Automatic annotation (TrEMBL):
Annotated source species: Pseudonocardia ailaonensis
Keyword annotations of the record: Membrane, Transmembrane, Transmembrane helix
This protein's record includes keyword Translocase: no
Transmembrane parts of this sequence: 20-37, 43-65, 86-108, 120-144, 151-171, 191-212
Name this polypeptide is given: Integral membrane protein
Length: 215
């Protein structure tokens, strides 16, 4: 079974469980509050939606990784030919969710407010949100099974990591992305955060696969 086939299966299974709906609804609620009135000229208000997307994407990734119980996951791993395709398929679904939430977060104020932005700043906003989403995915994977077995501990560790890293403006990918948006959102200033976030997500996936293989 290829990673794409695993991704389709996991997406279907996650949708049936409906647990992935909660983080998506949470991001929608945050956007409705942030941009329901007059948030001020863009791109500065996007800083808040970037900070919101970080924990939401972590929650989404953690939910995707823990959708199946250990017995079900072992069956999926056996059918896929090992934990590698399962981890890669989970990453594909999580990244698809990050892209969806990124597009939603960037488009919302463009539709709900009268503010417009130059194309370059729009690209910068997309990159900044994607960096936060991918970083959240990495955190979610590192806090989910098979690394952390209990969901209570998973949520607590993820929350601590998100809070500790989101408030550091010098720290890529999330802190530096927020700082770049507040400074004008030039796309060039956001390439490094996106690349760092992508590496983190891939490394987290590899770590999860390795631990599952040894378990």
């Amino acid at each position: 079974m290829t990673a794409v086939a695993v991704a389709r299966y996991l997406l279907s299974d996650a949708w049936r469980s409906q647990r992935v709906i909660i983080p998506v609804v949470l991001q929608i609620a945050v956007l409705a509050v942030l941009f329901g009135g007059d948030p001020g000229p863009l791109p500065t208000p996007w800083a808040a939606s970037i900070l919101a997307l970080y924990p939401v994407s972590a929650w989404l990734a953690l939910t995707l990784a823990n959708t199946e119980d250990p017995v079900q996951r072992s069956v999926t791993v056996a059918a896929a030919g090992g934990p590698g395709p399962v981890a890669a398929g989970t990453l594909l679904v999580a990244v698809a969710g990050d892209l969806l939430l990124t597009l939603l977060s960037v488009a919302w104020p463009l539709v709900a407010t009268h503010y417009t932005v130059p194309p370059g700043v729009l690209v910068g906003a997309l990159l900044a949100h994607l960096a936060a989403g991918l970083t959240g995915t990495a955190v979610g994977f590192l806090c989910a099974r098979p690394l952390v077995q209990r969901i209570g501990w998973s949520l607590l560790i993820a929350l601590v990591v998100v809070i500790a890293t989101a408030v550091q403006p010098w720290l890529p990918p999330v802190g530096s992305s927020v700082s770049a948006i507040e400074a004008g959102g030039h796309p060039g200033s956001l390439l490094v955060p996106v690349l760092v976030a992508l590496v983190l997500a891939v490394v987290a996936t590899a770590v999860s696969s390795t631990v599952a293989r040894r378990g």
